[in-house]
Amino acid sequence: xxxxxxxxxxxxCSILIALIIFISYAWLQDILAGEEGRVRKFIxxxxxxxxxxxxxxxxELTSRDYHDKYGNDRESLLYAVKEVFxxxxxxxxxxxxxxxxxxxxxxxxxxxxxxxxIGRTEQNNTxxxxxxxxxxxxxxxxxxxxxxxxxxxxxxxxxxxMGQNIS
Length: 167
Prior knowledge:
Structural class: alpha+beta
Radius of gyration: 20 Å
């Protein structure tokens, strides 16, 4: 007869070893990716936050000194994001390309993102918010205490949000 303790012990050891390998891989990948990899990770974290409509994560990713050419500060940007999240039932983001430029000190980054962003309203209407090659964003990031934050954002083409062209 098979001893169930031995069976579960070997099963738990296998899971523990797999977990250690996974954590080591993630840790090494973060170290080897360098600053550009950390910026890319920041962008993908922002993408997930928008798709999940998580205003708290969006706030955590935004610098307290945020400002843009449209006159928004951090509070007005987060208010607008909250309104957009309330208007759309679902937001889908497909990033087509990311171009990252770091300064010499690796404390500021300029990022150009080409993305297709689609919003689905409560009435099940679909709207293109950003449209692929036309949907190019330029954002600036600042590194504070070893963490990246959004400090400025602008679009090259008008963005359609809640049926209105912006910028």
